[in-house]
Write a structure and sequence with these properties.
Layout lengths: L1 H14 L2 H9 L16 H14 L3 E8 L2 E7 L9 E2 L4 H14 L9 H4 L10 H4 L3 H5 L18 H5 L15 H15 L3 H13 L5 E2 L13 E3 L1 H12 L3 E2 L2 E2 L3 H8 L22 E2 L5 E5 L3 E6 L4 E7 L4 H12 L12 H12 L15 H4 L4 E3 L6 E8 L6 E7 L2 E7 L5 E6 L5 E12 L2 E7 L6 E9 L2 E8 L9 E5 L1
Antiparallel strand pairs: 1-2, 1-11, 3-5, 4-5, 6-7, 8-9, 9-10, 10-11, 12-13, 12-21, 13-14, 14-15, 16-17, 17-18, 18-19, 19-20, 20-21
Helix pairs in contact: 1-2, 1-14, 3-13, 3-14, 4-9, 4-10
Length: 498
């Protein structure tokens, strides 16, 4: 019992409080926790990585480092949190690959299956030789033979749209990153098993790994999108990486054949020659090859599951970044050199510094004052906008409760929404996106000057963070908006007092 309590206290040094350490140790579905030093890394080196990421990359949302099967560091940039799912974008592809490997292992399909043979009713009137020769293997290694992608939109993508796309290259000879090809692999699993990829993976992957409540978007026919659309938690991503690091074995049970792990993560297609690019090291079956002997799944705007077999490590990052290579460079520059083959002497002082840093992470909040004298003049005043491409109709600002923060009321495309902004803290709520999706959100605001209120709003189950700037002048409101990724800065709009 004394040894057990000492272990928990060691965890508390890293993760900040004993109650949380006990909860983690007691959860059978969680990865075990350890200190960096116990697993051959210094807390100082990990802290250096976190500091560099926080200062130089805008912005990380979560980070988890696993060494020798133990989580040695984990952090979430508030309002992102451990319990929240995060949209994976193309990191979903690695989960689809896993489903294919499992279906093959159960004898339900083979890697050499003809794509066309699964969808004879969706075939075009004239079938080219290249389409006839397209195999499941070609879909997985991004060598289906296309010169361009068809639409990936859920209300458009289908086997029919894919099969009617011209196939000018012999399958297996031309690399094209092709999300619809992954959708087709998902559709083939559904044809072979009678289940969506999500349902097929639940008893075979998600439940054994303790992944609770995954969600996966579908096309208009109910087929899992495959190439994107999966949302899971940060630790769930780490579990997939650890499973592949362990050659498909989990708690003594072989969930994925070791041979599939080897094939899926090996170089199946060459795709470039730049030795400094992690996107030119070759492609497997829905996994990228990396520099330094690693492989990864990744997704748009910076979702990573980096597996480093030589170092027995997994690095998981969710983020909203424009330069994905910069994140990879940071891993190689800061974390890779710090991975020693044997454990280090304990360092409780720096372990506590690392713990405090990880617990205090936050997306950079707007800077400024809590109040402004202009608020009394403009509060409750509606500013209306002429017809515009953004379909913004009106904006109004109200004082927050108890003198804290403010509420921005936005009417857009016929829908009025209230964005409650905390001051110096994130105020959680809900926001309906332009695609009419109701998303969890959190907002924070401040007066950058007497006439200008700035807002940052995070849709914290996605990579997206919106910035608003409201400048009040006479009877006008100057409205600026910007997305961190996927959109950029919009033209300024000017509203007039109603």
């Amino acid at each position: 019992m004394k040894i057990f309590h000492s272990f928990l206290l060691g965890l508390a040094c890293v993760f900040g409080d004993v109650d949380r350490a006990i909860a983690m140790a007691a959860s059978p579905s969680s990865l075990p926790r350890s200190t960096p030093e116990e697993q051959g890394m210094s807390s100082t080196a990990v802290l250096g990585f976190v500091d560099a990421a926080d200062a130089g990359i805008d912005s990380f949302h979560s980070f988890m480092l696993v060494r020798h099967g133990n989580v040695v560091a984990e952090g979430w940039w508030s309002p992102y949190a451990a319990e929240s799912r995060h949209e994976l974008y193309s990191l979903s592809k690695s989960f689809t690959s896993t489903a294919v490997g499992m279906a093959i292992a159960e004898g339900k399909m083979t890697i050499s299956d003809s794509v066309l043979s699964y969808f004879t009713n969706d075939a075009p009137a004239e079938v080219s030789e290249n389409l006839k020769n397209m195999r499941l293997r070609d879909l997985l290694r991004m060598s289906a033979g296309h010169q361009k992608e068809v639409s990936t939109a859920p209300d458009v993508i289908s086997a029919k749209t894919f099969l009617t796309n011209a196939v000018p290259f012999k399958p297996g000879t031309h690399f094209l990153y092709n999300t619809p090809a992954t959708f087709m692999a998902s559709a083939m699993v559904t044809k072979a098993t009678g289940e969506s990829v999500l349902d097929f993976l639940k008893p075979r992957l998600f439940e054994p790994l303790g992944i609770v409540g995954p969600t996966w978007g579908t096309n208009f026919q109910g087929i899992s999108l495959g190439g994107y659309g999966l949302s899971v938690r940060t630790e769930d991503i780490a579990k997939l990486g650890q499973l592949y690091l362990q050659k498909g074995k989990w708690k003594g049970k072989q969930l994925i054949p070791a041979g599939w792990v080897d094939e899926a993560t090996a170089l199946q297609t060459s795709n470039g020659s730049n030795p400094k690019s992690d996107w030119d090291q070759g492609y497997g079956y829905q996994f990228w090859r990396c520099r330094n002997g690693a492989f990864r799944g990744d997704g748009a705007y910076g979702q990573y599951c980096i597996v480093m077999p030589e170092q027995e490590a997994v690095v998981v990052i969710t983020s909203g970044v424009r330069d994905m290579q910069a994140v990879m460079n940071l891993v190689w520059d800061k974390l890779l050199p710090a991975m020693e083959p044997q454990k280090l002497s304990s360092d409780p002082v720096n372990a506590r510094k690392l713990a405090a840093r990880l617990q205090g992470l936050s997306i950079h909040k707007p800077e400024g004052a809590a109040e402004s004298p202009i608020l009394k003049k403009v509060a409750g005043t509606k500013y209306v906008f002429a017809e515009n491409d953004k379909k913004l109709e009106s904006v109004m600002i109200e004082a927050g409760s108890a003198g804290k923060g403010a509420t921005v009321v936005i009417k857009k495309d016929g829908l009025e929404q209230r964005v409650e902004c905390g001051m110096g803290e994130w105020k959680k709520g809900r926001f309906v996106t332009v695609k009419k999706i109701n998303q969890p959100s959190a907002a924070c605001g401040a007066w950058a000057s007497e006439d200008t209120y700035v807002v940052k709003m995070a849709l914290y189950e996605t990579p997206f963070i919106a910035g608003l700037k409201l400048r009040f002048a006479d009877d006008q409101l100057f409205y600026d908006s910007e997305m961190n990724v996927g959109g950029g800065k919009d033209p300024q709009l000017v509203g007039k007092k109603q």
